Amino acid sequence: MDLLQLVDATRTEEDARRFIEKARWPEGIICPRCQRKDIHRFKCRNQVRCRACRYDFSLTVGTVFHKSHIGLRKWLLVIHMMTESKKGVSACQIQRQVGVSYPTAWYMCHRVRNTMYQPSDKGEKLIGIIEIDETYVGPKSNKPGRPAPGGPKAAILGMIQRDGKMIAKHVENTTGKTILLTVASPA
């Protein structure tokens, strides 16, 4: 979905609420506690009650939007900006384009990034077609021909599976033997 389609689909807060509800529960609302579909909507507030376990919950329970006073339209715009940007989006850019204060923009960016982070399990193996590359991380030397302050740069080996799983690991060097040992036991 591009930005124009998102803006058209979420013209009001109620449109944004329906958009999120349909995306989250395409088959109908399910209780997060007992996983049943027998719910009752409250007309005066944006909550529903499960008739089976009597649990009151909102559309945002268990999401990045939970317990946030920021409008859902703004949240959707921030998520779109952060996921569609190739080089990332700063909190200052969110502040200018969405119209929120800097602390609010920082908070939103932090919550979205934290939601997107998925730690890899220990012992996870990559299968199928795997692409491998290395990069070097560390301080840049100010004087050509001289070593950088703090010592040489650290080598990072990145391995990515075609369906998206990725593992990055610090290695001592990038010799063929080291790379083969790292690929054999990536976790």
Structure characteristics:
187 residues; elongated; three-stranded antiparallel β-sheet
What is the number of domains? 2
Low-confidence stretches: none
Strand % is 15-25%
- Tally of contiguous helical segments: 6
- Give the SSE order as H and E letters: HHEEEHHHEEEH
Q: Approximately how much helix is present in the residues?
A: 25-40%
Biggest sheet character: 3 strands, antiparallel
Question: N- to C-terminal separation?
Answer: 35 Å
User: Which structural class do you get from the secondary structure elements?
Assistant: alpha+beta
- Rg (C-alpha, Å): 23 Å
Widest β-sheet, arrangement of strands: 1-2-3
Chart the SSEs and their pairings.
Layout: H1 3-9, H2 13-24, E1 39-41, E2 47-50, E3 56-58, H3 72-84, H4 91-99, H5 102-116, E4 130-137, E5 154-161, E6 166-171, H6 176-184
Antiparallel strand pairs: 1-2, 2-3, 4-5, 5-6
